[in-house]
Design a protein that fits this description.
Largest sheet: 4 strands, antiparallel
Keywords: Membrane, Transmembrane, Transmembrane helix
Shape: elongated
Strand order of the largest sheet: 3-4-6-5
Radius of gyration: 22 Å
Order of helices and strands: HHEHHEHEEHHEE
Distance between the termini: 37 Å
Strand content: 15-25%
Protein name: DUF2854 domain-containing protein
Length: 185
């Protein structure tokens, strides 16, 4: 629940209300309320503005997640898949793009302007295994480059994950991180 709330919007709202109360109190001669409203309201409002300028919105789902997929996720998802899903579906601050550091380490982001942009995500089942599909707009990174990095992607996102890369259209790349069942010991 709290992951879906923008701290920037909260700061702007609370700071704006307190600042307005401070100005009204000043106009009516209420020194105590004036001081509290302006003393707290203006800094919170400025903090909200600063956060808003550095805000990265959550990535939306391209399809609703069914209860069966939620159950499959709870049974099979790796800690890495869960961490990625949680990170990209919440507000982030101070980052240029979702997964920007990961893409850079994988060699898929030579320049900020050429970085693939994560637009949507999807949770599904592929051959009975849980899959987290990251849907990128990738006009500057070729299909061949993505294919060359497939093995590195699998190693980077950890054990228990198989990467499957598809190209639904010319500028879009879908990266499926599929759970590989681990042998029982």
């Amino acid at each position: 629940m709290l992951r879906k709330i923008s701290l920037a919007s909260l700061g702007l709202t609370v700071g704006g209300i307190l600042t307005i109360i401070g100005f009204i109190a000043y106009a009516t001669g209420n020194a105590t309320l004036n001081l509290a409203g302006l003393f707290y309201g203006v800094p919170i409002l400025l903090g909200g503005l600063a956060l808003k300028s550095a805000e990265l919105k959550p990535v939306p789902y391209s399809q609703p997640v069914s209860p069966e997929i939620v159950t499959l996720r709870e049974q099979q998802a790796t800690p890495t898949q869960n961490q990625i899903r949680k990170d990209i579906t919440r507000y982030r601050y101070g980052q240029e793009a979702h997964l920007d550091e990961s893409l850079e380490r994988l060699g898929l982001s030579p320049l900020d302007e050429e970085r693939p942009v994560l637009e949507t995500l999807q949770e599904t089942s592929i051959d009975g295994a849980y899959a987290l599909i990251l849907e990128f707009n990738s006009p500057f990174i070729s299909w061949d480059m993505w294919q060359e990095k497939q093995e590195k992607i699998e190693k980077f996102f950890g054990p228990g994950i198989r990467a499957q890369i598809t190209q639904p259209d010319e500028k879009r790349i879908d990266l499926a991180l599929i759970t590989v069942p681990q042998p029982q010991s």
